[in-house]
Amino acid sequence: MATKSAGGSDFLNNLGRVYGIYTGGFLAFVVLLAVLEQIGVPNKILGYLFVFFTLAVYAIIGVLSRTAQVSEYYVAGRSVPALYNGMATGADWMSAASFVGMAGTLFLLGYDGIAWVLGWTGGFVLVSILIGPYLRKFGAYTVPDFLAFRYGGNFARGLGVLVLVACSFTYVTAQIYGTGLIASRFLGMPFELAVFAGLVGILVCSMLGGMRAVTWTQVAQYIVLIIAYLTPIVILSTKKYGFPIPELTYGQAIADITAREQQMLAAGLATVANLKPHISPFINYTPLNFFAIIMCMMVGTASLPHILMRYFTTPSVREARQSVAWSLLFIFLLYFSAPAYAAFSKLEVYTNIIGADVSALKPWIFNWGELGLIQICGKNAGSIDAIVAACKAIAGHPGVVRLQDFVINTDVIVLSTPEIAGLPYVISGLVAAGGLAAALSTADGLLLAIANALSHDVYYKMIDPNAPTVRRLMVARVLLLIVAVVAAATAATKPGDILAMVGWAFSLAMAGNFPALIMGVWWKRATATGAVCGIIAGFGLCLFYLVTTRYFPGAGVQYFGMTSLLNPATGAPLVDIAKAMALPNAMESFPTLAHPLANKVGWFNLTNIACGLLGAPLGFAVIYVVSLLGKAPSAEMQAYVDDIRKPRGRTVLDEKTA
Amino acid sequence: MPDTKDLKQREEAHWAKTSRLMFMHLGVWFFFGFVIHMFVVPLNKITVPILNFPLGFYMAAQGSLIVFVVMLFMFAKQQDKIDREFGFAEED
């Protein structure tokens, strides 16, 4: 690219040094704050310093990488080396839910929670062998670009945009929600204000420099988030087991947990009904749902536009493949540590809280209890007096904490580990900065995916194909701003379902995108009509199942033959359908989660998170049948597919427009 | 035109080999993503030496993940080799 500034390639040649200095600088900053803490600077100031310093760095990177070039804006000039694209993808991928929530889920669900760990890693295998490199060779700016080219025009493009917006918007709302949560918890800001403060951080990066700025910011954010995630647990592992690799030492913790579970049962601290042994499978999910979730998360990974578009930025198809491998390695570092967090926390809770006298609990519990995140005996564990009173009120309470007395919010597991390990506040601040980096980086990538689809696919390709470059980029930025503000406004209302919706996004992407993308590359005979029908049928069925089971459960039972899901441990129905249908609110539309039927009905005992398992096979079948009924695609199109399959040569889009 | 015929043949042979590699990796992926976890209960009776993990739990929490990472690096190498063999690889 002749117009690339000398500064740009200087930067690319010195990436290792730039990010090396950055990492060193960040560590020095953490040490500096640790010193400040020792000389008595209050925690709140340390928290603010952490957040504002990291936000400022991201903003500076965003400003330095601003661009006015279309290919820089959409695909970072296709110049991001495999390793760095891997890091950026890691940050893009790991959201607030992964960073803060994953370990908590594993704490609560034990073995069954690992479905999420497996599902959110194995999908990259599919990205690499089935889709990513081929889309890179095709040379698209967005995923709908490919659908439009392969499947004859703007109808397919429109469907692609619809699927993209459906699965990205709820996801980005959840990230902004996560930003607000972390900022409000650590900085004591009001939640609504924190949401919009986080928004500014997101916008500075993505508005000015598009994909280029987001890429280099995400690399910086990955470094912060992985240091923040691993530090507390490495220290904890060293303290407890004298060995700094927690992923290897937590096997002992699991053995201890299993032994302690038996003790608790024997001592009457837990009952067989409420104790869920940590390593026993299929207590929280039936085997069908366990594997269905794994499948949907994996295939969803390979269909989510904000992930696929990261592989459009590599210099070559070869590097796109290597880049997927690097991505998974960097993601793996966090995901294989999450079960260690869960095990250490659980051991701490089981040995030092369960069975302890209610008047002798450790003080860290009350910090979280005050916020309503830990409850003991049914009341927020704000102080010793409060829980002593609460437990006294329970008839026949023995005065020690039993398993059924103790309720913990899943977010607390990662956030409280520094306190459990007795580490200074600076480590807690570090964890908050890491959580923030995770939420911001994912939000950046998602916002960019949505805004790019709207500006490139809808505005440029469908509305005004003659728009000059300057106006295209202007529209892209304005749309980015609008989408961001709408997402933040949605997040500020604290929608109740928001975290569940992240799971839905995977299934929707799987049902809407996967069959059409796969068949587009791997089956030359797939026709435009076939693909369009397949997308509508697959995505439609998945959406129908989600919406009906969640928002119209009564109608689902009445008209579509849905039955109650079954309790995985006992096999009994979750609700008595006949009784629930007799209630006056049975047919209510858009009920709250408290509705007796909401999320509790379905077909084949399949949870609605896994609705992609219904939609995707239908999509494949429809594409196959409808394609065979029609005429084969033109010889020209088949030749293009051949071109996509060979890494050598120019991108297919370039060739066509040249 | 012998040239296009030759190209056609090379394309087909290249794609046949690529597909074979794809199915092979898909098989490994399916085994470590799903099949092995169906046997978690019997596998949990075995303990990983030194580390003390029950094997079924270990495979889901770490073992399969390690396999995925390694196989992706291998796949990148193998596919590149196939591309080079048929002259379809990008210039270095």
Task: Give a quick summary of the entry.
The complex is a heterodimer of chains A (658) and B (92). Helices cover 71% and strands 2% of the residues of chain A.
Protein architecture, described:
The complex is a heterodimer of chains A (658) and B (92). Chain A is mainly α and 658 residues long. Helices cover 71% and strands 2% of the residues of chain A. Chain A is globular and about 80 Å long. Mean pLDDT of chain A is 90; it is low at 1-7. With 92 residues, chain B is mostly helical. In chain B, helix 1 (2-33) runs antiparallel to helix 3. At the A-B interface, helix 7, helix 11, helix 12 and helix 14 of A face helix 1, helix 2 and helix 3 of B.
The SS-based structural class of chain A is: mainly alpha
Question: What form of chain A results from the Cα inertia axes?
Answer: globular
User: What's the alpha carbon Rg of chain A, rounded to whole Å?
Assistant: 25 Å
Unreliable residue runs of chain B: none
Number of helices of chain A: 27
Would you report the number of β strands of chain B? 0
The arrangement of helices and strands of chain B along the chain is: HHH
Strand content range of chain B: under 5%
Oligomer: heterodimer
Helix content of chain A: over 70%
Helices and strands in order, then pairings?
The complex is a heterodimer of chains A (658) and B (92).
Chain A: H1 6-13, H2 15-38, H3 43-64, H4 70-75, H5 82-93, H6 96-109, H7 114-138, H8 143-150, H9 154-187, H10 191-241, H11 246-266, H12 287-301, H13 305-308, H14 317-335, H15 338-353, H16 364-370, E1 374-376, E2 379-380, H17 384-392, E3 406-408, H18 412-420, H19 425-463, H20 469-492, H21 498-522, H22 528-551, H23 553-560, E4 563-564, H24 577-582, E5 601-602, H25 612-629, H26 635-645, H27 652-657
Antiparallel strand pairs in A: 1-2, 1-3, 4-5
Helix pairs in contact in A: 2-3, 2-10, 2-19, 3-10, 3-19, 5-10, 5-14, 5-19, 6-15, 6-18, 6-19, 7-12, 7-14, 8-9, 9-10, 9-19, 9-20, 9-21, 9-22, 10-19, 10-20, 11-15, 12-21, 15-18, 18-19, 19-20, 21-22, 21-25, 22-23, 22-25
Chain B: H1 2-33, H2 40-44, H3 55-85
